[in-house]
């Protein structure tokens, strides 16, 4: 595999001629590069007017490699051919170099260019590209590649020090200006090299000409800098960004990288530049910001191929769902503003935006019921988009790169209600979307006041979180966050929220239970044009007097687990579970026409044939459960036999008065209302293997958390187990 390197544009804030004078002092040897033994000029040519000069050198490098490898290779030095073309008229220096040693086994090619800055003729730009292709090397191809890349990266970092050293040396000697070339000028003399040792060469080295970096005028990374200094640095970097980010053909400047993206190794810079260039060539129109590209590279440890794959998938997703315009087009519903217990709150000690989530106070089930998964996901995406925007703002305010935020999660109040299975499933979907499209945006996660139930939730969620992200989690139980190593190590005391014992008022909503009157059916949610997923986990159904709604579940493996969760939106029903060895006939849908009723939503399916006999054709496996309007019911049934299971919601007939056989007045009045013969239920079912479910079921049974446990004796088998809970 060919290894490639592409440097950013590195800028010297010195004239081209002065930089050239410093560059020539590197020859014939350079004490700042111990491996650079010597160099000979083997060919030299100057144009008649002296404007162009071509110099070819043969350079020897003493590469730092294992002694065994040197013996196998049979060389002490690696020889390179370097060809320099200096054009004084155009003010450019082009450098090409390749390896002479082992050229039939290893191909190393490097090109460098010094040129005048396009916006400031008193500055000098430097660019560098290189490639390494190891075809064969005595079975040590991988070792040689690692040695070459390591030493090449080291020499690139060293390049800045070398050029700055010689510029300082020229300044100490009183040389601060070199006149530009004119037709009457004489060519600058070149220092003559000393003779080379005739010692044999060794392992290939990628570099002859080290790269250079930008000498910063101000230290923009100093967090203690004065505001005026930060503002000056920010303005300077802003103007530089405008210069360098104007067209698709623009190139990244090393000063811009350091100021806005952070300290990157030369190879990391190369990955960023190459991926950015590939996007410019293959993606028409707008490409992601450099900070966003860098996040995907970091998420894949700067493996360019892997980062490119997930980035392209994310770009397609963003375009498909118009995520780039989310902050302008998305308006949070009032229920989110009132009951979603999360919000932005100042910043942490590192300048990262701080997001606070009071998860323990959040009614996750109520939010899913009232909003649907799509709206909840879109709200979470808007939070992430806002986080990206705040990172950009803080980068300008604090004068240093800030690419991620800190999240503080308060679990006070977390209980088994938060382990509501559909809610956890929705949470896992949200995590999946965020992990895929917002990598490396979480700098630190502070989890406070974790209760005993937290390990259960963590077990469910952690497998879906990237390993690099999990390493950023800090978990505190009880009041441990108040002691040394706690919250004050990461957040200034002045901005610790009041509900955590601080003095700063926090505008995050306190949450509470979402009123059931705000719950909506699956059809109502589906009609809203906010879908980011292709399915909803809830279905709605209508139940009529004489026309129950039934759901068929086929069980292949005995001891499977049927789980259910449903809300009674209107009316009272009796919930039953039946088992049959026979497959029911294709379902009959009651279109409600027989009742003279038309419904805007819901459906009614009947599976049990009227000719079937209870106890012969099918059997009841759970005691009937009466469910009142407004109740939420969760439960499970561990099956004993394979076959067909039928979940049934049946209209609940009001019992007559116990003191007389006459009907009650309320019953008589209810029969006059056609709508009283209709119930609405919103439900979700899932089948799991018992080995996958027992842990969750045990957890649910261990704590009711406001739910009342219903003990239902089985009628057909003492080995059939059921767990049901009702929230009133």
TrEMBL record:
Domain GOLD residues, every copy:
534-687
Instruction: Identify the CDD domains for this entry.
Output: SEC14
Tell me which Gene Ontology terms the entry assigns under biological process: negative regulation of RIG-I signaling pathway
Query: In its UniProt entry, what is this protein called?
Result: SEC14-like protein 1
- Pfam families xref list: CRAL_TRIO, CRAL_TRIO_N, PRELI
GO molecular function per UniProt: RIG-I binding
**Species, as recorded:** Dicentrarchus labrax (European seabass)
Q: What is the lineage of its organism?
A: Eukaryota, Metazoa, Chordata, Craniata, Vertebrata
Describe the location of the PRELI/MSF1 domain by residue ranges: 3-175
One GO term describing the cellular component:
cytosol
Q: Which residue range or ranges hold the CRAL-TRIO domain?
A: 332-508
